[in-house]
Structure formats: structure tokens, C-alpha cells
Amino acid sequence: MTLPAIAVVGGTGNLGAAIAWRLARAGYPVTIGSRNAESAEKAAAELGHGLRGGANVDVVANADIIIVTVPFAAQEATLRDIAPHVVGKLVVDTTVPLVPPKVMRVQLPDEGSAAQKAQAVLGEGVTLVSAFHNVAAHKLSKDIDVGCDVLVFGDDKNARGRVVALADAMGLRGLHGGALVNSAAAEALTSILIFMNKTYKVDGAGIRITGDLIPPEA
């Protein structure tokens, strides 16, 4: 089976680079995107595993799945840049609405969540899924068992399933979290995890869902 081509927008950042490295190592064809093509090419060369790099607008044009891994402050501008090139495609938004300096306080945007804001910017012609909100990038970038579940949100069940499969391929456990509106819960939880990291001196707290889960039918 041919694996889908992945473009990681903002792939020179910590989370983007870690996701790209994990997926490339799992055999996916992955291209790192950045506002500066040279920066992306350099990062790809350093990460290895056949990764390539280029400008954001170029890498998304040739991808089946686009994973957006930029800070909240850059989310809207980045999405507007790539919007004309992702119509009809699956976009995975990882954005958490952290507003410095109070990153340990939940500060969801007026739209209800960063994911809902992303959908509004991209329009109905794009299938949007949100995920990877609660995974510590510095752990994801290492060859270790991260021990973290990934909640995946989206209004299209099949699209959610594709992202659940990506999380599984990365050595995590992807779980359906329901409709896109539910993304607000995972986005808000990130601020709580940051607080817990500081309060309990944890090195990248994550989440695990308890119980014997039976995977849903495809």
C-alpha cells in the first residue's frame, strides 16, 4: 500500500521537526515546510530519513496530508498563505492557543478553539482535523516510548481515522476524540499540563486514557 505524502508546515520548529522525523522513520514520504526554503532544506538534511525541505506553499502543493505546526501567533497568517493550495486536501492543525506570558492559563480564542479558527480561515473546501496538542516535542524527538495518547478531533470520521493511523505509526496511540468542536478540551488541557510540569517538576507530562478500549469500526 502506498503511504500518503506528508507536508509539515512549520517543520523547522520543535514539534514539527519531531513529527516529521517520526513519520519519515516510519516510512512516510515527508517534506518539511518553512517560510524560508533554505531553512527547511537544512533542517531536513539534519533529520535524515529521506526528509526533504522547501517553502510552505511549495511543499503543501504536492502533499496528500498537511500537518500545520506553528505557534498560535502565526496560525492565521500561515493558514492564509497555504489556503489556496490545500483545497480538497486533509489538513491537520496542531495549534494550541497559548498567549504568553500566561501560558499556564486557558485562553481559548473567540471562535471557541484554534481548530475552529483554522476551519474558518481555510473554508469548507478543506477537511480539517486537529491533533497532537498534548505531546511533549522534546520527547517526541527522541527514540523513546513517549507513553502518551493523542486525541484526534474532526467532523469527518474517516479523516480522523487517517490521523489516528499517523499517530499510531509514530509510536503513540491515536484515539478518536469526536467532533472538531471538542478540540477545545485538548487545547485547554495543554495549559494545565504546562502548569503541572512546573508544579510537580515533570519532564513533559502527557495524557493516557484508561480502560479497555475497543477500536471503532472503520
UniProtKB/TrEMBL annotation:
Membrane-spanning segments: none
Coiled coil: none
Recorded superkingdom: Bacteria
This protein's record includes keyword Protease: no
InterPro entries linked to this entry: NAD(P)-bd_dom_sf, NpdG, P5C_Rdtase_cat_N, STEAP_metalloreductase
Domain Pyrroline-5-carboxylate reductase catalytic N-terminal positions: 6-97
Keywords: Oxidoreductase
Keyword Oxidoreductase: yes
NCBIfam families, alphabetized: npdG
Protein's UniProt name: NADPH-dependent F420 reductase
UniProt source species: Sphingobium soli
Annotated gene: npdG
